[in-house]
């Protein structure tokens, strides 16, 4: 059975990545592509790398006939997404890739995103889209909120350890490095090649990055108490990839065993042999996440490293993984693409 | 029906690219991987990006049971390849990715590769692997010689025009730019990141690049007279991609019409609208080749531009395309992976 | 004696590069920096790499006291520059880095830049700023028009050969590759890191690039007849550097001897040994231009390659070189910075 | 007065960087360049970017007439350096860029570098070359041991804070990112462009990097007790630059004030306004180090960030700074080169 798919916000990088994945998906068919600012154009004009595909031209959202759509991927900007999704017919399943439904608490939303939420009911209904940890809820959800790409990476490293109680909850540091496509296709001076290439810097230092809202919500829920981590993102001069280095305190072997047990049946999460560390090179363009655990020379200190592709496992791959579950397909359908190296 | 595949020289980039493609191929199964210098290792050690696949460990070539193999991809270095292929049992089909069987004339081989050929008989038997132009011969071939990656790119631009007689055969210039993976995984100072990144240079200037042997052989055969082109390769500070800029003399509209007609039924060759030019960004990681034709401001001058991925369409993708034909499968099987952008 | 310098358009890359050079110049002092859109800011805010220098804050152009200025570098956008320079007091020397005064013929200006010139008198008076070929005129000039960076590179390759009559004037092809900083600090989608890095493409194909106006003007003047070359620029995924590959027809030895003779006393132009080719790596951040001449395998064909840094020798370094002459200083003052490799 | 300089190990990146700096140094003259493996070649062959300089050809070390040399920069590999320096005449001043004399304790040397030291006397005599903290000793030293580039960066961040007692000495984490030139010009697979570009990884995870020997020695000496930090280096896909992110516990304002006070008179160390963070872009090719201090959202947590160029301030720039002091020159002589951005 083929599912009819619409993509809203198809002119951004997550939109393009969805199409790349769906291009070889066995049971999804794209029936509508919307991008208000580029309506009327063909995808070949907006993303020439998709030129070989037979795709509908870009239209405006309100031109879509949603009676003919089974599932919508919504890659619209934050704040816009909630307005649009609220207006969709209730029979359509939705995977949102924006930040609008990640936080369940309207006050937390207001704190991190600086405004009142326009669809508080949906905010409560939405299922948090970290597949490996919300699998059953996602199968039955109508609306799934894709996670932040940094938030996904950090949670893959830390959730099992917080749940198992094997690390000190007050001494968690996450030093994360994200590729430039994580910032989207927006015209900002610091995203120009000449400003970014051949250099490196931190940003949102001091605990101001919005993905902390997700960490706070999720980690506190798991622990049953408030958990606040330190989180410092850095901007990598590469196009794809997140590497997160976590500094935690606990017994290294217990940490490793917990990690192995947590992910032993997961198709996309690979825990490396104890003491090995992953690289973003080796997950590029794929839905895999590689995790390494190393004992520090100081007893009781452990270094965790996770690598994934922010556009795939961190965003559009995760979205397809969730859509597969919502549509009753195999979770891995269309997602076993091998990483593209070199 | 599943075909049993062996890859010789599996620890190089073309080997890795073959495995990446075959990972989602519907009817190929890898039964043996050989790399003499790394025999005994797992592929996850040699190429961690292939960690998720169940693959045989690397062994030595003489450890392979060729009775259990339908087709061999041979990614060994030039000169080694001919020795190994000569010794293979005659029932095994072979796609060679080296330069050893590209030139049919032993004297031309000696001129460009500097030594006598060890398997002159096979040299005569081998079919030149430029699929779009040798399709029928490849279907019946036992041994197919994969083309040079630069040679493929230049031929996609020039073969139809030489065959149609719409350009001046004595005024053909090919200014080509190739990514660093074209040089393989060899330890050379000029391939170090610090030597290559953020810079740009020409090499093999003056007509000394070995792929000229292929151009000479093929273009002269098509034209029925000696054709010698000027060919200058440059080294791009990127990992994948070839862009070839061709300067020819003829009527631009006739050139364009010839190109469109030549490729209108080809699944992997896309001729852009007249006056548009392709980019390597938009073919990365895929088996597609994009071609543009532009009229110069000087009457009678035409600029041709072709873009493809040297590891895929220029090498391992082409190899799988040929293997599909040799094995009676659909030519596009496993090869419709969309380009990976950004 | 210290010369008082003002820079207009100081928030762009050529402005920053001027300041970088002047930072260690023995006889220039920056007394005013103007950038209308960023007036009020410090240079450390706009270009943090200049943080260690004591520099005046950015102001608006009309806030500058030009009585206190000996020489103005004008790095304003095309078309703006002519209006501003026309209004400057006549005692101030001007080096313009825009395109406004490169073309002497108002009709040619209108043809390439699409509008009427606002300062036709100055257009006639301005000296073309290719130092090595207009040295004496520049010494006495009040207004010098900096050349296009591509135009400079192509002229270093071709002027001596056209002047000496050693090449066929109707068969000149210039295949040029320019780094992204050549496009300035403007917010365009194709200049984003994610769009540009790891790829490569041609642009302005077919003879539409504005620097052709300079080539036509200069080459025709030297030859005493109309000379039109073919010129195809490409966009390199690096921040600095131009490599131009020239295809000409003539005797290779004569071409080489002409080149050596032309540049033997030039401090910034290095002609490599016959048959060697330069790389942009080796001129980065410097005012040097490296030139190579190679004989093709086809008799009578010669390949020329030039490498320079578009921001230095192609723009701001050239500007300082010209200013040195206009101010009576040693031509090389402040410009002997060694290239920054790796 | 001009000082006669010899460089041993001139064919590596630190050798090239020394020559780049000395090229515009007012009082140093290079009289000998040694590189045993490339003896007989000109520098233009080994490093074409130095082509414009009049430099002696490369010779073997034992061909140097040390009577004619005032100061030697020794850029030889670890372990080789100590043998060569031991044999130098005692009148020659030496700045060593290797690791051989960084650790004063022979046992610590054996622990981190895995062998007995060949010149234990010199090991005791050598002054640790972190100029800002050993200035007076360096002025009178005959042998100065250049620091590790990572070690320098970490110490700029942490020494003032440890000395002032404003941070918890048992909770120091240093997450450091170093450019590829830090690994030198050696032929290793992981340094190839195709392996490194467009990716990112950690290495020497768990406290095994040799520069920890320097941290242990120096921080313990300052604190008057054993101080062990956690240190995780990462490999950046850029050619130059180190960014170190430090996580410490203490009062943010006290930390900031301590940092400002420590560096207020330093010509090369710039402490940014409270809450700002530096970038490696803005120190590239220069001897500057930019430092930022930010308060975390968690009370008592502070994030420190330092950026410098590993080849300049982290190695060859530091070496010239030390040589200036040893030779009685101004400390900043030849070192005020502005960073090269973009």
Description of the molecule:
The structure is a homotetramer of 342-residue chains. Chain A has 342 residues and is α/β, with parallel strands linked by helices. Chain A has 2 domains: 3-125, Rossmann fold, CATH 3.40.50.720; 150-309, Dihydrodipicolinate Reductase, domain 2 (2-Layer Sandwich). Chain A is built from 11 helices and 14 strands. Chain A has helices at residues 13-22, 43-46, 80-86, 106-113, 120-125, 131-139, 149-164, 193-196, 211-223, 252-263, 312-326, and strands at 3-8, 28-34, 58-59, 71-74, 93-96, 127-128, 143-145, 173-179, 201-202, 230-236, 242-249, 269-271, 289-295, 301-308. In chain A, strand 6, helix 6 and strand 7 form a beta-alpha-beta unit. The mean pLDDT of chain A is 97. Chains A, B, C, D: Keywords: Amino-acid biosynthesis, Arginine biosynthesis, Cytoplasm, NADP, Oxidoreductase. Chains A, B, C, D: GO terms for molecular function: N-acetyl-gamma-glutamyl-phosphate reductase activity. Chains A, B, C, D: This is N-acetyl-gamma-glutamyl-phosphate reductase. Chains A, B, C, D: Catalyzes the NADPH-dependent reduction of N-acetyl-5-glutamyl phosphate to yield N-acetyl-L-glutamate 5-semialdehyde. Chains A, B, C, D: Residues 4-141 form the Semialdehyde dehydrogenase NAD-binding domain.
What portion of the residues of chain A fall into strands of 2 or more residues? 15-25%
Spatial sequence of strands, sheet with the most strands of chain A: 3-2-1-4-5-7-6
**Assembly annotation:** homotetramer
What is the succession of H and E elements of chain A? EHEHEEHEHHEHEHEHEHEEHEEEH
Query: Overall 3D geometry of chain A?
Result: globular
Assign the CATH topology of the largest domain in chain A.
Dihydrodipicolinate Reductase, domain 2
How many structural domains can be distinguished in the coordinates of chain A?
Answer: 2
Largest sheet of chain A: 7 strands, parallel
What CATH architecture label of the largest domain in chain A applies? Answer: 2-Layer Sandwich
Mean pLDDT of chain A: 97
The proportion of residues forming helix of chain A, as a percent range, comes to: 25-40%
Question: Which class best fits the helix and strand makeup of chain A?
Answer: alpha/beta
CATH superfamily of the largest domain in chain A: Dihydrodipicolinate Reductase, domain 2
Function (chains A, B, C, D): Catalyzes the NADPH-dependent reduction of N-acetyl-5-glutamyl phosphate to yield N-acetyl-L-glutamate 5-semialdehyde.
EC number (chains A, B, C, D): 1.2.1.38
GO molecular function (chains A, B, C, D): N-acetyl-gamma-glutamyl-phosphate reductase activity
Domain Semialdehyde dehydrogenase NAD-binding (chains A, B, C, D): 4-141
């Amino acid at each position: 059975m083929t599912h009819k798919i619409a993509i809203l916000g198809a002119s951004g990088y997550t939109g393009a990545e969805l199409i790349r994945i769906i291009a070889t998906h066995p049971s999804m068919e794209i029936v509508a592509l919307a991008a208000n600012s580029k309506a009327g154009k063909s995808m070949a004009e907006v993303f020439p790398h998709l030129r070989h595909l037979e795709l509908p031209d870009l239209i405006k959202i309100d031109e879509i006939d949603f009676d003919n759509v089974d599932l919508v991927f919504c890659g619209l900007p934050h704040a816009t997404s909630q307005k649009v999704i609220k207006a969709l017919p209730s029979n359509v399943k939705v995977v949102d890739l924006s930040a609008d439904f990640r936080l369940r608490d309207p006050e937390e939303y207001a704190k991190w995103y600086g405004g009142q939420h326009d669809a508080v009911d949906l905010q409560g209904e939405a299922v948090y889209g970290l597949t490996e940890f919300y699998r059953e809820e996602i199968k039955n959800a109508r609306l799934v909120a894709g996670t932040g790409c940094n938030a996904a990476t950090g949670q893959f490293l830390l959730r099992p350890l917080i749940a198992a109680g094997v690390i000190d909850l007050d001494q968690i540091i996450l030093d994360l490095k994200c590729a430039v496509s994580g910032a989207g296709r927006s015209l900002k001076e610091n995203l120009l090649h000449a400003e970014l290439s051949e250099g490196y810097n931190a940003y949102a230092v001091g605990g101001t990055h919005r993905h902390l809202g997700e960490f706070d919500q999720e980690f506190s829920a798991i622990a049953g108490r408030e958990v606040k981590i330190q989180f410092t993102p850095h901007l990598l001069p590469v196009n794809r990839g997140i590497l997160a280095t976590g500094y935690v305190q606990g017994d290294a072997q217990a940490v490793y065993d917990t990690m192995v047990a947590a992910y032993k049946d997961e198709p996309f999460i690979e825990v490396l042999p104890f003491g090995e560390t992953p690289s973003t090179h080796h997950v590029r363009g794929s839905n895999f996440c590689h995790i390494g655990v190393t004992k520090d020379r100081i007893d009781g200190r452990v270094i965790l490293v996770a690598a994934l592709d922010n556009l795939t496992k961190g965003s559009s791959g995760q979205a397809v993984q969730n859509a597969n579950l919502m549509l009753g397909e195999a979770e891995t359908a269309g997602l076993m693409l091998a990483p593209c190296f070199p």
